[in-house]
Predict the structure.
Amino acid sequence: MQAIIDILKNNNSFIVVAHEKPDGDAIGSVTGLTAFLNDNGKKATALLVDDIPTKFEDIISCPLTRMISANEINSADILIILDSARSSRINLPSNINIDEIKIPIVNIDHHIDNNVNGTVNYINSAAGATAEIIADLAKKMEVSNHWIVSRNCAEMLYLGIVTDTGSFKFTNTTCNTFQAAAYLLSKGVDINKINNAAYFSKALNQLLFEAEMINNHLKCDFDGRYAHAIIPQSLFDKYQFNMKDGETVIEYLREINTAVIAALLYPKDSAVKVSLRSKNSAYPVGPIARKFNGGGHEMAAGITFENKSFEEVDKLLYDAIKEVLEKNEI
Ligand code: 5GP
Ligand code: MN
């Protein structure tokens, strides 16, 4: 942490980026850290190439850069990569390879399987969100360096914490998470604004999409302990729905009282994308994801299957989950 503080103090221009398909933590940690740097006399750019969920569009007050060249990145002092477990999933423009980056890289994350090999790496898998780590960093720099933590910065970091912990419901919520959130609230965060955006801003087309998914595509196996759904492209087309707005779709599966593991399978370009969730740490989904070259956290993970049909992927997962549910049977 001290090495990162020194880097922030001793350099002037920063590009801040996160993982592709940005979620609340990717967006919140990138915009929060960018605001923090800009509020303290630095020149920082929030690079978010992929579209952000519609619900967050109105609360992001920091300008977002959507496109950048390798030369422009290399003319900054430092590239900061946040919340990106895999180097292959960093949300750089598709024509830029991470090997083309010649400036020092600071890698800050809370994913246990982080493989981004930065110049400086700070990986804390005990943190509920990358934004929680940034909040701790900001607090330290406020105390030791008199840096300002503005309301705007605090609101973005709060967004990251509240979304990645499911409003402090998930097992990644710790004493430190609440302390970081309390610290951010002391900076004037409007929690009504953030929670309205995160939780009360669903478009009707999404609700109809979710209702039809549950009615027509949900399957429950192993006495209801495994809830899974294959969402065909036709359902996305029918409701003009895009998974960039679908971070919470899987929650309907996890919410089922009998469900221990939930899986959502949906098309992404030509691949089959899988989202996995567990609600019992005796049955983690992280190892299942890693078995198929995916990754993420123990309780929330994902996989991308190239060149496989939905049925093939469904069967592979079914067998892997059967093994986990049987092996860990209490
Ligand atoms: P989600 O299900 O929300 O897409 O992702 C849950 C978690 O799994 C996130 O931490 C994300 O980084 C990770 N994840 C999702 N999809 C993939 C994937 O295709 N490959 C890897 N390595 N990790 C993924
Ligand atoms: Mn995160």
